[in-house]
Amino acid sequence: MGLGPIPFTSIDRYALRHSIAGDDFDFFQKMIRAMDRVFIEHAKGNAPDVPGNSGGKPKLNAREMTPEMFDAVFG
């Protein structure tokens, strides 16, 4: 498994487990997608705000986002 966007099924499963529904789910999914895009750009080395960025290999370790990791980072 390589670097790529978080699957919708993973976002949906997390939201279901944590009772995130309706408009809250729409907002949650938009926020996850936005953070995921930024993470992927940084990991690929394509983020414009990385000083000295020349592209190439990922600069971050790509790890799957688990519910436990999300909770640890975002409370």
* First-to-last CA distance: 27 Å
- Order of SSEs, N→C? HHH
Instruction: Report the strand count.
Output: 0
Shape, principal axes of CA atoms:
globular
Structural class by secondary-structure content: mainly alpha
The overall average pLDDT, rounded, is 81
Provide the low-confidence segments as ranges.
Answer: none
What's the number of structural domains? 1
Number of helices: 3
Give the DSSP E fraction (strand runs of 2 or more residues). under 5%
Largest sheet: none
Radius of gyration: 14 Å
Give a brief rundown of this model.
The chain has 3 helices and no strands. By secondary structure, the protein is an all-alpha fold.
Based on the model shown, name its key terms.
mainly alpha, 75 residues
Structure explained in plain terms:
This protein has 75 residues and is mainly α. It has one domain (8-74). The chain has 3 helices and no strands. It has helices spanning 8-17, 22-44, 67-74. Helix 1 (8-17) packs across helix 2.
How does the SSE layout of this entry go?
Elements: H1 8-17, H2 22-44, H3 67-74
